[in-house]
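Escalated from tier 1: 3-acetylpyridine adenine dinucleotide holo job.
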Amino acid sequence: MTGAEKNNPQSQPKDVAALKKLYLDALIVGAGFSGLYQLHSLRDKLGLNVQVVEAGAGVGGTWYWNRYPGARCDSESHTYCYYFSKELLKEWRWSERYPGQAEILRYLNFCTSKLDLSRSINFNQRVISAIWNEQNKRWVIKTNAGLLIAARYLITAVGCLSSTNMPNISGQSTFKGELYHTGQWPHKGVDFTDKTVVIIGTGSTGIQTIPIVAKHSKHLTVLQRTPNFSVPARNAPLDPSYHEKFCDEINTWQKKMLKSRHGHPWTAPPRKLYKVAKKDRDVILEKAWKTGGLRFRESFNDILIDEQSNKIMSDFIRTKILDTVDDPIIGESLLPVDHPFGTKRPPIDTNYFETFNRDNVDLVDIKQNPIKKFENRGLELEDGRYITADIVIFATGFDAMSGALLKMGIVGHQSLSLDEAWKEGPTTFLGLGVHKFPNLFIITGPGSPSVLTNMPRAIEQHVDWITSLLRYCEAYNIVTVEAEKEAMLNWTSHVTSVANQTLFPKANHSWYLGANIPGKPRTFMPYADGLDKYQSYCVLIAERKYSGFKMMDEKHDQK
Ligand code: N01
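Tier 2 regenerated the structure:
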């Protein structure tokens, strides 16, 4: 046991930068939704000596970095927050149906301050290596700003979409204008007044930012490689009475979210789209379109499993796009045809397709005519066309789910690096643990429902589960916990087989598959059988005394 480390005032320095070394029970990497709650759970519920290292200068994770114009969550406000504390839920009042970036960041700062978390967070510290020391049974972690940490447990809370994908386009250094990635947006903002802007990418991010940039710039050219589906968000301010009603119904909301596949407080009615008569389904689809948001897809329950039903819904959206865009040629160019609706993460928007009716917006198909290189004042396309730009914005997404983990230089038992272990794609047990990486726990890792859910629900489930596991380890003097190889391989093939029973693999270029990153192994990373079923597995594993995890005590006896 680590009595010397536990509750030792010397190991909770006030001025971390001056001391440079930390001896901890647990280190958490990342101060977003997951890191903050994990810190609270381990420090305040379990009494462990725990700290967080965070690359940013403040808390917030995704919402600290993604400050691009229009950044907003697609989960509805009263669901996109912590449910572990009714006090927090009742005290914080959301202002709109969907929370915007600035409001979410304020919310996370509010929680940080209410729970007094900042004193345990080391900001501006990016992990550059994390190496398992077999002799001492410790992780030894180094950061870019000179912290050296020894910790019994290492918990990654680095987010699924935090490692930005910056395409390598030649001549980038010759470009004299401003260049940004939406995922690393400058805190002081960007002034678009009288500027000529190019945006590359039409995923959820591009679709959110394009209408705002179009409104504030002189001219915007959208470089589209693949047209995307999008459903109107129908965002609106919330009536103040909404919050009072919500406070009376918190338990009901929570139950609904935890019982659902995706962690939202609704479930699709048990009806198959292709079986409903055309006139009836048109009425249902129109009504769902007016409601907007992610609820649209849930108007039927077979959209992600039945091609015929999916085609009907996809056609419905394509018709809406053609109806919205004035110029039929542009409308045609915006039609998504390469994947079934919902098999890539479906964006929701405010005036996205309407934006292409503006005189100051152009759409260029860069699949037909790819970008050749940057020039001093813009971009040249393969056919020689030159697009002038004062500002180029990359809305090109992320090396999702595994990217941030692989950048941390994690090396486990017998000097096995995580890179090497995952060279053919991520393998995990429950998304939480990896064989040969003892005492490493991944929050919302590959193999967990994570990005297919309303994230705070998946995060709270993971944090609670990890916290219970560590409570068990502390109670039974367990020194190491490691996913067993067989359990990990069985789980990983279960993740693949579940995905193969859906339409998800039909989206060839989706980041769910890692297909957006050149050279990345293609494996469907999130767990597609639903948060509800996933939770039941996790409960079962815990009830079976964490079967699938090998546990060793101080005497190296297996428990
Ligand atoms: O990234 P993406 P994102 N040359 O990967 C294009 C979450 N999110 O940041 O489709 C040219 O989806 C790429 O083209 P293609 C949400 O989970 C949530 O938009 O690969 N183009 C695509 O158009 C989301 O799914 C919210 O052909 C290139 C775009 O860039 C996830 O974040 C809001 C290119 C990337 O789309 C990621 O969304 C925002 C290249 N080399 C984000 N490389 C909400 O909650 C890529 N592209 C609402």
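The chain has 17 helices and 20 strands.
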